[in-house]
Amino acid sequence: MREFIRTVAAALGVACIAVSLATISTDRAMAQPAEAPVKQMALTDKQIQGVLAASKDMDAITEKLPENAPPDAKVTAQLDAVAKKNGFASYDDYNNVTDNIGLVIAGFDPATKKYVGNDAVIKAQIAEVQADKKMSAKDKKEALADLNEALKSPAPPIQNKGNIDLVAKYYDQLAPLLGGSDQ
Q: Which candidate among 4, 20, 58, 137 keeps its CA 20 to 30 Å from the CA of 12?
């Protein structure tokens, strides 16, 4: 049962990434609109290592905030300080990097840890939910509705193909931080 819940949670997590392009809790803290497109950029090892190093401190700050509440000046200063300590120009720069990572990681198959594209991941999750005999009809209907909605809102194509290889290199470390599966 626990594995089933974990599978559904992972499926819905990836679906949410596809729909909103939100990547981690820090994005919610800034209350950015879901429609804002990700400013795509070529990622570097240093940036990904910075995200990995900063994530614990960022989460410690943002977990204290009410959901979708914009941070006050004091919190913004703390977030900027953590970002700068980890090699980013600002908290906005950190968020842009995490958005780019999230855009790529949403297209990884958590079972194979290979990039297959966002649509393929969602279609696989739909098939998994449909085949699940233990899931209640109500939960299955809700999960399928969420996944089908995510399929209707395609993620933009990855402009920097090198980002796929870079995220693959750090996949095992990034997936737990950015909503991927822990398989």
A: 58
